[in-house]
Each structure stands twice: as structure tokens, then as C-alpha cells.
Specification:
Strand content of chain A: under 5%
Number of helices of chain A: 11
CATH topology of chain A: Tetracycline Repressor, domain 2
Shape of chain A: globular
CATH superfamily of chain A: Tetracycline Repressor, domain 2
CATH architecture of chain A: Orthogonal Bundle
Largest interface: A-B, 58 and 59 residues
Oligomer: homotetramer
Order of helices and strands of chain A: HHHHHHHHHHH
Structural class of chain A: mainly alpha
Number of strands of chain A: 0
Distance between the termini of chain A: 32 Å
Helix content of chain A: over 70%
Chain lengths: ~210, ~210, ~210, ~210
DNA sequence: GATGAATGAGGATTCATTCAT
DNA sequence: AATGAATGAATCCTCATTCAT
């Protein structure tokens, strides 16, 4: 259940054992897009780090935009799958749900950055992400919040509560460079991830129901 | 004609009444850097929207990077000033503090995006922002959290708690495009900002001290 | 089609029969750098005269400076090779040595200009030229001068004597525009080159040992 | 007679005691044009080193080209004056003539570089230099050579002999960077200039009449 | 699948020059 | 006489992309 175990199994976040060339390209592109954003990433750099030349990359992806979208889809799809799966299970178990989500981001360290980049830019790919993948989950979450007998959030506050969760989870992973500067630890280290998980769980218990 | 007096009144957040060319450039650059990031913003576009040609811009700023840093400094400096001022007042009054901070981001709608862009990229300008401007504030916040008799966060959790506040506040303003897609409201609308303020205040009361 | 054989024959000094694009670029660049200097030569002009666009040129050379250095190396290397070859032969035969050197500059009409440009500017590429290529030859020359029984130059004068030879040989080819203005002949014409050779030989006999 | 004495008196080569702004500009421009060539020198750099801005420079000179020509004229005119004066004196005294010329270049250390730059480029300003200033002197020199009873140069060789003198004198001063790299002394140091003078005088005696 | 060569569009920046002040 | 601001032209160079091989 802990992230460190999952990492070896899933491997989607690391590019060490990449097999096909397309996968290798996607791995590199994911990392570079996450670190430098879409505009700040050169196709040539992706190609070079993937071990080929830029023209060769066009044998695998129609263009930079298409590659970017493929990266986003590959990154966001399993997240959506995970969460729609979780939603169908016992959604009272917010602890396990939080563990799963945080673990997913921990094993996919570029995902949060990708989502936050796209959210900041408000690019064309944001709508699919938000509408297709995240919205259903959000709906479940809002239902869960409302259904919680301890919760006393008004209906208008629901979205902001959900948004707060998104910010806390995404932020922990996406804004790692800032946190590293501000504090003296790496938010992506295993112990910090565990701490963040326990923090979020305590929030889930107490914070959600202030009284 | 007596511009210097008007400037403070009119110019809060908008770039309509900008007076000097340098200010106009800074205003435009702030908006474009916030919306498209550093790499995604062309000097020529900044110049055009500021009403001059790209070479002319170099009469006011040494280069793109220098302009970017000037934008960041102009944006972050008052934030730091505000918060260091708040820290010296009654720092038990977390409500007023939250109001001030949120209001500042509300009236400087590009600031959160600028900080989050730079945090994501982990660029060279991040260190000054974090070290010089944010770190002192963070120190105060952590002291306040520890001093709170109701608080029972361990010492290691302090940074993560502070980080959570950063994520919630920055996120509300910076990730507006995502929230707009996900929900059907504008986080920057006055009523939503008020709602967010009251939400954060409730968090400050309850969430910080779960038991 | 069998280019590699032809190249040595046809391509001596002229850029007409250049084969590979890189060679064509080098040929044009050599001529333009020689005629206008480094700063006075535009990459776009080199590219245009070589039959391509400026960006295409970057597929062959990393940049203007790299191209310049490649031009210098291609020009100076055979000169050094020639002279180190001559040094190993009977170095009493100063006549043959002078013939070879002058003929080399005659068949590489840009070389003297390139060296003199770089010597005037004192650019970064001058040190390699001087240290690696010319210095060994100079050493030989100074030994030869000292060893000459008729020579009565003091040790301190040796360098100046060598320098005088350099000036006379380089000057004849590099300062052709001045000589054309001053006199009414072309220093690069065959008969003038022959005359210069015989002049230098007479110098070598008489001038070097005045008494 | 020695260069070191003259330098303090004449001062045309140094820019320390420059008086009018125009003179200061000319001094700086002369040095920069000599060191970097016409294309390699920016008007702004000249202006900055002269203590004003580029637009101000246009109050004194019509443009870059005009400034360049003014520099050349100011540099070459006294040289021509000197030499026409020398020609009218006892032109058998080649020793004094050589001393004067070399001293002039020694006290005007940029002059040789300026002439050699312009000769290499073959620019529009070369013709005036060659035709108006140098040609009369050259004519005298050739007459002197022919008239010398010891000389046995053919008529066609005359120009080449004169050219050789030009190369040796200009080269010593203009190609100082190369000589510094090649040998371990500064050609512009007083002792080296004296040595060069004595060398040239010996050449004048012996070399000119090999038999 | 891969690549070297090529390119139009655009990148930031420099340059010589102008002009109102 | 000096300058801040402005600019068209040109600088070197990068970029995403195409295409023949």
C-alpha cells in the first residue's frame, strides 16, 4: 500500500524500464513538459533525451501538441480510473481513498505538475481534463461531503471545499520546488508523503466538520 | 497631471490608467507572464500590447529576464510588506490576517499565477521569492501555529500545515481556469472570494486543531 | 561521381567545384570572412552565397563562431603541415622553402587575409593559430637564422627578423587592396608573385647577413 | 628623437588630455576602430567610453561612417605631412627618415592598425588614403631607391620593394597581438621599437643593395 | 523507423539613427 | 550640446515541421 512498494510494480512514472520507443518518448516528454511547461519544452530536447532525433519523433506522434495531449491523457486516464473505482467502493472510507490518491501522485511525480501547468495556462487541453476525467470524481466527492452527517457545509461551499482538497494534494506534489526552497525537506520523500497523508486524513476527520 | 497621487488610487490591479511607459510595460508583462508563463510569452507581444515595438522595450528593461524579474519583484514585494506588517500586529487575529492576504491576491489577480508558474518551473527567480519574501512570513506562521494552545501539530508537521495554507490560497486564485471548468462559477468573483475567506477562517478555527 | 579523387585536383583554392554542402559553406565563409572580417560578415550572406538559408547552415555548423574557427583551422592546418614538412627537409635550401610558402599563399588567396584579420583583432582564435601552428615553424626559422654562418643578428633580433618575413609574405597577399590602389598592378597576378618570390630570395641571401 | 620623449609632447595618440568633446570622441573611436575594425565597433560603445550617449554623438559627427573617416583623416594626415616634409629634406639620409616614420607610428599606436584594417577590407576610404596621402610619398621612395647608386632593383621590382617596407613597418605595429602570442615581448615597448629601428636601418643599408 | 538536410516563421536582441525635449 | 524614447532593419539563432533517402 505504501508508495515505495507500488513504485516498482507500476513503473508508469519512471522511464527506466520503458519498452517501445513511443513509451520512451512519452516518458521523457512527460518529465520535460512537467518541469518546463509546454512552451518551455523543445521537441528536439524530448527527442534527444529519448535517444533519437526530432524528425524521428514524428514517426510516433503527429506533432508537439499531439504529443502533449498524449502525455496528458496517459497521465490523467489512470487517475480517473482509480478514482471512479474508488467512488464505487465504500465511499465512507475516506482514509483509504486519500491514501490511494496520494499514492498515485507519489508514483506519478509529474502528474500534478502537468495538471497545474495546464490549469494555469488554461489551455485547450484543460477542458477535456476537467470535464471528462475530473468532473465525475468531483461530483462524487461533493455528494460524499454533503452526505456526511458531520458535515455542515452549505451547498455553495461544496465546490470550494473540493477545490481546497485539490489544491492541497496537487500543491504538495506540483509545488515541490517552492517547498524545497521554503523549508528544508523534499516533499516527494517517502516520509514526507506519509506525513502529508496523515495530515490530510486528520483534515478529513476534523476539518470537514468544524464543530 | 498630478499623476503620482492618482496612481495609487486608480491603478490598483488594472492597467488601464498606467502612466509611465515602464509601468505600462510592467502591467502588460505581468498579465502575459501570468497567463502564459515566461517561455510562453513573447517580448514582441508585451511590447505591442504596451503600445511600442520590441526594440523600444529595451530602452526600459535590459531584457526579457530582467523584465520578468521586475514583474516578480513588483508583485511580491507589497505582498511581503503586507504580511510583515500583519505579523507585527496582533497575530492572534488570524481572521483579519486571512482577510488581508486574500484581499491582496484578489486585487492582484496575476500574483498567484506568477508565483505558481515560478514554483512549478523552479526557475532562478524562485529562490529570491522564497528566501527573501516568503520565508520570514512562513517563520511567523509556524510560530503562530505552534503557539496556538489548541494546536496539536507535531514539529515536523508544521511546514506541511503552512504549505497547505499556501496551496489553498494560491490555488484559489492561480488555478481559476481549472475551477471554472470544473464548477460553474468564477473563483475571482466577489462573492466567491468572500466565501473562500469565510471557508479559510473556519479552517483556521477548526481544522488547525482537530481535537 | 567519384568525388573524393577529383576534390584534390579541382578544388585547390577555388570554390567552384565544391562538393559537400559543408565544403561549400566553408568556401564561401572563408572568402567573406577574409574580405569583410568576422564582425563584417553576416551568416545570412554566407548562407545565401552557399545556396541555402541561414537556418540550414546551422545543420552543418554550430554557429557563426564555430564556422569561423572551422574556416581558420581548414586554412591554417595545411600551412602548418607544409612548413613542418619543409623543416624536416634540407633546411639550408631557403629558396625552395620560400617558393613553397609563397605558392601556398598564392593558391589560398584568403589565408593571409584571415590571419591578418585575426592578428589585428587579437581575437580568441589567434592564440591557437599562433601557438599550435605558427610557433613551431618560427622556432625552426630562428634556429636557421642563428645557424647561418653569414648571419650576424643578435639573439634579441631573431624574433624581429622572423617577424619581418611574416610581414612581407602575409602583407603581399593580405594587403592586396592597398597595393592595387598604390601601384598599378595586382599582387596576386602570376608574374607579380614570381617577382615577389625572387625578391624574397634575394633578401634571404643578402639582407639576412648585411656584412 | 626617441619615441618616449616625443610621446609626451605630441599627445595625439593618447586620449588622456583630450579637450573638446569631439576630440574625446575621435580618440575613443580611433582606439576602438583600430582594435575591432569598423564593423566590429558599435557607435554606442564609442559614445559610452567618451562619456556621452549615442544620440549626443550625432551632434558632433554626421554618422558612423563620417566619424570613421574623420578618424582616418586625422590619423593619416600628419603622417603624410611628416613624410612629404621628409621627402623634401635630404633624402639620402634614410636613417633619419626611418627614425621619423617609426617614431610616428610608435606615438600613434592605432594608426598602423587603422590602415591595415582598411587595406584588408578594401573599403571606400582606402582610395583616399592611398591616392592622396601615401602615393606621393611612395613616388618619392621609388625615386630614391632608383637613384641610389648601390641599388640594383629593376624597375618592376621597385613597387615590391616599397611594399616590403610598408609591410615591415605597418606590420610591426599593427600585428602586435600576433607577435605577442608568437614571441614573448611587446613590439610596442620602447626597447623593441628601438631594436626594430636599428634593424630597418641595417636593412636599408645592406638589404637594398644585395651585392 | 530513422535521419540529415532544409526551411518559414518567429525568437530575443543589437544597431545606427531620428526626434522631441 | 545632450538625452530619453522610439524605431526599422538587421543581427544570430531556435523552433516545429517536412521530405527525400
Amino acid at each position: 500500500m505504501s508508495g515505495s512498494v507500488l513504485r516498482e510494480v507500476v513503473d508508469a512514472g519512471g522511464e527506466a524500464a520503458a519498452e517501445t520507443t513511443s513509451d520512451r518518448i512519452l516518458d521523457v516528454a512527460e518529465r520535460l513538459f512537467a518541469d518546463h511547461g509546454f512552451a518551455g519544452t523543445a521537441v528536439r530536447d524530448i527527442a534527444r533525451e529519448a535517444g533519437l532525433t526530432a524528425p524521428s519523433l514524428y514517426n510516433h506522434f503527429a506533432g508537439k501538441q499531439a504529443l502533449y495531449e498524449a502525455v496528458l491523457e496517459r497521465g490523467v486516464a489512470p487517475l480517473a480510473k482509480l478514482m471512479s473505482g474508488l467512488a464505487q467502493k465504500d465511499n465512507q472510507d475516506s482514509d483509504g481513498l486519500l491514501d490511494s490518491i496520494v499514492d498515485h501522485f507519489a508514483t506519478h511525480p509529474n502528474l500534478a505538475k502537468l495538471i497545474q501547468h495546464e490549469s494555469l495556462i488554461g489551455g485547450a487541453s484543460l477542458a477535456p481534463i476537467a470535464q471528462v476525467w475530473l468532473r465525475p470524481i468531483v461530483k462524487d466527492a461533493m455528494i460524499a461531503i454533503q452526505r456526511n452527517p458531520d458535515s455542515n457545509w452549505s451547498e455553495e461551499e461544496g465546490p470550494l471545499v473540493v477545490a481546497a482538497w485539490i489544491h492541497m494534494i496537487l500543491g504538495h506534489f506540483a509545488m515541490a520546488p517552492l517547498l524545497r526552497e521554503l523549508f528544508d525537506f523534499d516533499p516527494l520523500a517517502d516520509d514526507q508523503i506519509e506525513r502529508q497523508k496523515s495530515l490530510l486524513k486528520r483534515y478529513a476527520k476534523g476539518v470537514m466538520s468544524p464543530e
